[in-house]
Amino acid sequence: MNPGDSALTASQVESRRTQPRPVAVIDIGTTSIRMEIAEIAPDGTVRSLQRLFQAVNLGRDTFTRGILRKNTIEECVRILKSYRHILEEYQIRHADRIRVVATSAVREAENRLVFLDRIYSATGMHVEPIEEPDVIRMTYLGIQPFLQAEPALVASTTMIVEVGGGSTELLLVQGENVLGSQTYRLGSVRMRESLESLRSAGLRTRDIMAEQIGHTIEQIQQHVARTPPEQMVALGGDMRFAAAQLLQEWTPDSLGRVPIRELERFTNSFLAKTRDQIVRQYRLSYADAETLGPALLANVMIAKTFGLEQVLVTRYSLRDGLLKDMASRDTWNTGFDEQVIRSAHELSKRFAIDQVHAAHVEYLCRLLFASIREEYDIDPRHEVLLRAAARLHESGMYLGSSGYHKHTMYIVLNSELFGLSRRGLLLASLVARYHRRASPKPTHQGYASLTREERVLVRQLAAILRVADALDRSRTQRVREIVCDLDDRHFTISVPRVTDLSIEQLAIKQKGPLFEEIFGMQVILRPLRGATRN
After folding, report:
1. Is-contact 154 148, C-beta < 8 A?
2. Please, is 245 exposed, middle or buried when counting C-beta atoms within 10 Å of its C-beta (0-12, 13-18, 19+)?
3. Ranges assigned E (strand) in 43-193
4. Are the C-beta atoms of 29 and 73 separated by less than 8 Å?
5. What are phi and psi of 52, to 5 degrees?
6. Distance between CA 305 and CA 221 in Å, rounded?
7. How many helices (H) and strands (E) does the chain have?
């Protein structure tokens, strides 16, 4: 309830809850600051009300100087102040109704904290430098409706690509299942800024860009080698611009089909023009005139590499994903959890681990987590970290059995799991690291950087993982059902249909102390009375 609700009648409060709520998302990108104002209905439906755009050269500063210039920061302040006035007109004032994110241009700037503090001081806005995995997660949330509505995409392996100003995001999906995701340091602004030093060597601009794009394509080919894409969806304002020029009857709310031959012809013509010619002919800003060509060329080369005859284009933007995330903030998307675990499963295959054991430990973790979560008020959203750690807890054995838990942490921490931010990866890697041997210590790498809440969470999840791993010490998956009982001193696990639990009881004795240390209960494992093994 808002502070002012105390003066309202019960019917007025209920009316507020059933009315659409106005919200806003602001995307501080490499070449522009964009804001979208929308209404979110009680059923989660999002209706756009207004979209705004103003150009700014954040990317040029960061990718050439490494810092954001004072003049650029003040220009951002001016733009965001003007947006704040518009939000006032819509009566959007509370922080939970406004989300402001910044991408690579701010995230990579050495003086990003100066930027964030200046924006907050001038506007009261909390700017979140959104990480690359979060951008990919938002892409998945926003693009889902388009994928589900298109029969050809439901039945295909689809590569979703967005060539941004500072980086290129790639998401590989098959139907509704995420097969993989990756971020590459290839961006239209980054390419343009790197051209200045190379042009002096007498190389043609297009050749330089093609070489840079080619290196990234080699990486993409490696990452999608097992499941080559059959379709490609290209995101971003650059491709929307091209689609609007090439497709006479295309509306941005639908999927546009752009033939590669026509896109390549248009791209070649575009790259042959000077910046001033582009601005005059297409009425674009100078920033867009410089970055459209590199982005279009990257999309053309990626599509041709995989032998695709057309590229699908949508109006989707990062802001669509942000709005959908805000709409579902009070609910938990279990389907999204499954995509994270699918990504962990795919990663685990690379390290030749015992897949049956890993899957069973994950299953037991879910049972244990469900039995203890409410008693200790553990956020249900953290279960996905436990499950991912369970899937990967033995991946370090690929590098050697001695101290493999430390190898596991290194592997998880330096991988990309769809849906997990860098912070999420750190937490999952620590949970996996502590599935055996020593308890967490302040001197341990990674653990020392955690907040108190994060330290408690890692210990709780690692303790659960240890018990789950102990329950499958025989690696026969014979412990399939458990009945859990909690009291002040004991956490009793009763197992039906198994009479001899001596192996598991010994493992619990070795692995149980961390559980008792964090939850204050000794783990007791016993057969369920009156039960016999089948």
Report:
1. yes
2. middle
3. 46-55, 98-102, 127-129, 157-163, 168-174, 177-184
4. no
5. -130, 155
6. 9
7. 22, 14
CA-CA distance, 406 to 280, in Å (whole number)? 59
Burial of 244 (0-12, 13-18, 19+ CB in 10 A): middle
How many residues are recorded in the chain? Answer: 534
- Overall average pLDDT of the 42-46 stretch: 87
Can you list the positions of beta strands (E) in 87-210? 98-102, 127-129, 157-163, 168-174, 177-184
Residue that is written with structure tokens 């998956």 in the block? 477
Does residue 228 contact residue 246 with C-beta atoms inside 8 Å? no
d(CA 286, CA 276): 8
Q: Is the pLDDT of residue 533 over 50?
A: no
Do the beta carbons of residue 231 and residue 255 sit within 8 Å? no
CA gap 439, 457 in Å, rounded = 13
Cα–Cα distance, 143 to 318 (Å, whole number): 10
Instruction: Let me know: does 104 contact 164? Beta carbons within 8 Å.
Output: yes
Helix axes 355-372, 452-471, angle to 10 degrees: 120
Cα separation, 100 vs 27, whole angstroms? 6
- Residue indicated by tokens 């043609």: 204
Contacts of 137 (CB under 8 A, 6+ apart): 321, 336, 418, 419
pLDDT tens digit string along 148-173? Answer: 888 878 889 999 999 999 999 999 98
The residues, ordered by sequence, that sit 6+ positions from 207 with a Cβ below 8 Å of its Cβ are none
The DSSP string of 432-463 is HHTTSSSPP-TTSTTGGGS-HHHHHHHHHHHH
Question: Is residue 223 scored above 60 in pLDDT?
Answer: yes
| Average pLDDT estimate for 62-70 | 94
Q: And the tokens for 343?
A: 């990504």
Dmax (CA) for the chain in angstroms is 86
Residue 264 has pLDDT above 90, yes or no: yes
Place of tokens 């009375």: 529
State what percent of residues in the chain have pLDDT above 70: 93
Of 508 and 149, which is predicted with more confidence? 508
Bridge partners for 53 per DSSP: 34
What is the helix (H) or strand (E) element at residue 245, kind and residue range? helix 237-246
What torsion do the CA atoms of 235, 327, 119, 295 make, to the nearest 10 degrees? Answer: 0
Residue 300 buriedness (CB in 10 A; 0-12 / 13-18 / 19+): buried
For residue 459, CA distances in Å to 29, 48, 413, 436 come to: 37, 43, 17, 12
Is 266's pLDDT higher than 90?
Answer: yes
For residue 479, what are the CA distances in angstroms to 49, 387, 467, 508?
Answer: 55, 18, 12, 13
Phi, psi of 527 (to 5 degrees): -70, 150
The amino acid that residue 209 corresponds to is M
| Placement of tokens 């007498």 in the chain | 202
